[in-house]
């Protein structure tokens, strides 16, 4: 764990220079966007399509093999039953990979408007709908606006614990949090459903602060999206396999769980490692551009791991760069990261990064530690006194 005092308080003038240098990276990067970025996202979209088709075909093949094996059919003396499990595993894995790529590298980034400059209606951030239970419209409100504007500001950023978990000692402890190690596991398995329900603010409804009529109105589009997802993955595709629907159904369930858990791990590693900070509401009063960048930096963490991890995480392995530049195509984050890191070092600011096991280990520690009463630790101030 890094020492939080390694973050040097900055003067107002230093904050202005810090912000200007980071703004300059943005200007240069946006000016250089072009054919290679369009080619990249279109290749990922095509990969998602073909990997999903391969996964679903293999699941249907596994269902057929399972049916034939019941009849003791063999191929060249090899019982078909022996081919069922590897075919099912490969099909499920490919479908899970397709869902991860669609969710993280395509859906999340497109919805941020990263590719609006292309003028492609299929990659428009205001209209793209992704393959999870939650609506993109709600995500634009809870994530693009509230989270990215008020990153880790207590009482304004709903992503701090998602209303279920006490991740930071500044969150008021309640006996309910004693159960959070178990709740965290369930949340990971059902993460897309948590995302779907986030903007409904069910806690306010249960507390009587939102009436039933308003809740029904808010739930209507969410309910329609949930129904479409359930129908697609758990009714239509399994029924296409006829009487041997069960392997297809189970494959879809496992693929969605794989996507949910992976997304949970990446998002939590980007926001809840040991040195990530939260901020009081008053900290953003009259916030300058440099101050905003500094808050994003201290509220984020990166994951080191190379190109494959970058791709499978939707480049959220560079969460710091994403929080600085959420509407810049994420495939650019790796190339601008060294310059961002150098600027942070020059101004005496920690650039929080580490391997996936290290970062997720810190997340697990936070979940376990803050399930019990704990007190806030001293943090280096953002600004110099005086």
TrEMBL record:
InterPro entries: FA_desaturase_dom, Fatty_acid_desaturase. The keyword Membrane applies. Keywords: Membrane, Transmembrane, Transmembrane helix. One of its GO terms (biological process) is lipid metabolic process. GO terms for cellular component: membrane. It holds the Pfam family FA_desaturase. It comes from the Bacteria. GO terms for molecular function: oxidoreductase activity, acting on paired donors, with oxidation of a pair of donors resulting in the reduction of molecular oxygen to two molecules of water. This is Linoleoyl-CoA desaturase. Residues 87-353 form the Fatty acid desaturase domain.
